[in-house]
């Protein structure tokens, strides 16, 4: 960003449009970077928008020393995570 931030630096249109989930995982991940939302610059935040087909999945993955927040806008998702030291498994159904 050059100059002071404006409201437009924190806005991205089109996330309400479902992306294709016609693939073996039945999901689609749209990475939202500071190129798309300039206001993310220097905030140390990474955003992603996920679309799922019925029974679609997001493969197990890691985020070392990072936090993940999920917000379900439509439907139901079975989410979980494993802590470290000690390894504990937590799951929850999100609506």
TrEMBL record:
InterPro entries: Cupin_1, Germin_Mn-BS, RmlC-like_jellyroll, RmlC_Cupin_sf. This is Cupin type-1 domain-containing protein. Residues 14-93 form the Cupin type-1 domain. It comes from the Eukaryota. GO terms for molecular function: manganese ion binding.
